[in-house]
Amino acid sequence: MEEGRGIYDNIAKTLAYLLGGNTGELTVMCLAALVGWPLPLLPIQLLWINLITDGLPALALATDPIDPDVLQRPPRPPEAQLVDWAFCTRIALVGGLSAGVALSAFAYEWYTDSGLARARDAAFAVLVTAELLRAFGARSQTRTVWQIGVLSHRPLVLIVLVSLVLQVAMHYLPALHLLFGTSSISLSQWVAWLALGSVPLLVLEVRKVVCRSRRMCGM
């Protein structure tokens, strides 16, 4: 029974993580088109996000250790569905947060006359950061990252660190500049974009605390 519940949880968290990321990417592209902006992300950048930034953390989430209190929960109702209203609401919230920070970075660089290339760099870096950091929070709908333990799933930590290193290299290696349409950026810009990319995770973690205090975590 414990193993079965653990497998179900991992399927649910992996699906939610992937759909949340895809919703964010789709929202970024659609909203930019609606307001008349140029493409915030190039096709090769979207491919990188889907295959590496989303794909590898999702594999780690699929092998997440079983929750120690999994058998203390009441059984799911027989009619319960994996993709229900609460699930869709969380996906919409995650997608909206990820798209919001990416488009904010793009708009700031675009309207301060930094150029289209720099605006795309900002949106790309912020969205990748948001997706990678969100993987830590995706491990549980009710427990915060600090309650779970940041280092309690070492494969996920390794994947996130390697992905971040590759993202940084993408902005400094000339060959990757040509492939991904990126450019070199300063340390201060990295700090600003990393801080902005951490906003979705922080908001979702605060939501867990608020929901738990109101006994509304399933909403």
Structural class: mainly alpha
- How much of the sequence lies in strands comes to under 5%
Radius of gyration: 18 Å
Unreliable stretches (pLDDT < 50, length at least 5) are none
What is the strand tally?
A: 0
The main β sheet shows up as:
none
Helix content: over 70%
Task: Tell me, briefly, the overall form.
Answer: globular
**Straight-line N-to-C gap:** 25 Å
Q: Give the integer mean of the pLDDT values.
A: 89
So how many helices?
9
SSE series: HHHHHHHHH
Described by its quaternary structure, the protein is: single chain
Kindly describe this structure:
By secondary structure, the protein is an all-alpha fold. It contains nine helices and no strands. It has helices at 2-35, 43-62, 85-111, 116-137, 145-148, 154-170, 174-180, 187-197, 199-213. The chain is globular. The two termini are 25 Å apart.
